[in-house]
Amino acid sequence: MSGASLNKPRRSNAWLLLLPAGIWYAVFFVVPMLFPLIFSFAESDPTGGVLLQNFSVENYARFVQCTPAANGVLPECIYLRVFGQTLLFAILGTLGCLLIAYPLAYFLATRAGGWRTTLLVLIIVPFWTSFLIRTYAWQVLLADQGILNGFFIALGFVTDDTRIRMLDTPFAVYLGIIYNYLPLMVFPLYVSLERLDKSLLEASKDLGATRLATFRQVTLPLTAPGLFTGILLTFIPLTGEYIIPSLLGGSKTLLMGNLVANQFLQARDWAFGSASAIVLIATLVLFVLLWFRASGGEAVEAV
Asked: CA-CA distances (angstroms) from residue 178 to 76, 213, 235, 244, 297?
């Protein structure tokens, strides 16, 4: 065999390995996504479904529409307010999970010792229970006649007439968000911290750096992949959260997930529901693109 033939690159058929996943992705994700995209430009049928005629952007215009200001009353942008409230809960929920998860993951990776496996199992165990059941459990804890109020009464902090209103409030929704999404932040951070080369920390201390400086200049940059991944895994599902505000927030806390579900199931306005969903999806796609650009691709290194 000649040297030229040996140096000739072989044709790669590696793309065949992607074919099964590509077909699955196209059939069960891309194609279904086309339906709400098309429906968002259509007209809703009063009896349910859509009328595939008279395509327009009216549904999107309705989403950003505000009532005109009159007699000193500020304009009310109902759907934009729900959208903004959703982003606020998603941002605050992600930040809350991060503030709790980072110290917890750091402890598990560096200080837990023989208790590490036990503590990790305790974090994983809630995932063995239905998301719905876990959220329902908070109703028992937060109700006016619930366990927490009973505990406060036993300690003398409140009385039967001054029970703390916790259920059906934004506080209850935020608490449910932190509880249910905390593991999604903990595990990527734990993986990054567990892989961290401890000799680099020792070298930083030997060079005279304080604990805070070591954390800021060594630990935090090296665990950036887990940080980026945890934020991504938490923020994205939070923007579409439906169960937690429905069970713990009552009718006072309306997020985009509830808005879309109400348009499909109650108002029977499929076209506007589709437009609302597309607005949310487009926002998430933009966020993911910007986040990957900001992270330099590090968001996928920890998974």
From this structure: 30, 29, 12, 11, 26
3-state secondary structure labels for all residues of 183-242: HHHHHHHHHHHHHCCHHHHHHHHHCCCCHHHHHHHHHHHHCHHHHHHHHHHHHHHHHCCC
Spatial contact of 89 and 238, defined as CB atoms under 8 Å apart:
yes
Number of folded domains in the chain?
A: 1
Q: List, in sequence order, every residue forming a beta bridge with 51; answer none if it has no partner.
A: 43
Helix (H) / strand (E) containing 44 = strand 43-44
DSSP 8-state assignment for residue 50: E
In a domain, 10, yes or no: no
Q: From residue 23, give the alpha-carbon distance in Å to each of 31, 98, 116, 296.
A: 11, 36, 40, 28
**Token pair for 35:** 């339906």
> In this structure, what token pair is assigned to residue 21?
């996943």
Tens digits of residue pLDDT in 76-99: 788 999 999 999 999 999 999 999
Angle of the 224-239 helix axis to the 78-110 helix axis, nearest 10:
150
CATH code of the domain in which 232 resides:
1.10.3720.10
Name every residue whose Cβ is closer than 8 Å to that of residue 25 and which is 6 or more positions away in sequence.
none
Taking residue 23's Cβ as centre, other Cβ atoms within 10 Å add up to 10
Q: What is the pLDDT of residues 22-37, one digit of tens each?
A: 899 889 988 989 999 9
CA distance 283 to 301: 24
Q: Do you know the residue count of the chain? A: 303
Evaluate whether residue 26 is within a structural domain: no
Q: Is residue 8 part of a domain?
A: no
The whole-model pTM stands at 0.85
Please give the Cα distance from 275 to 84 (Å, whole number).
16
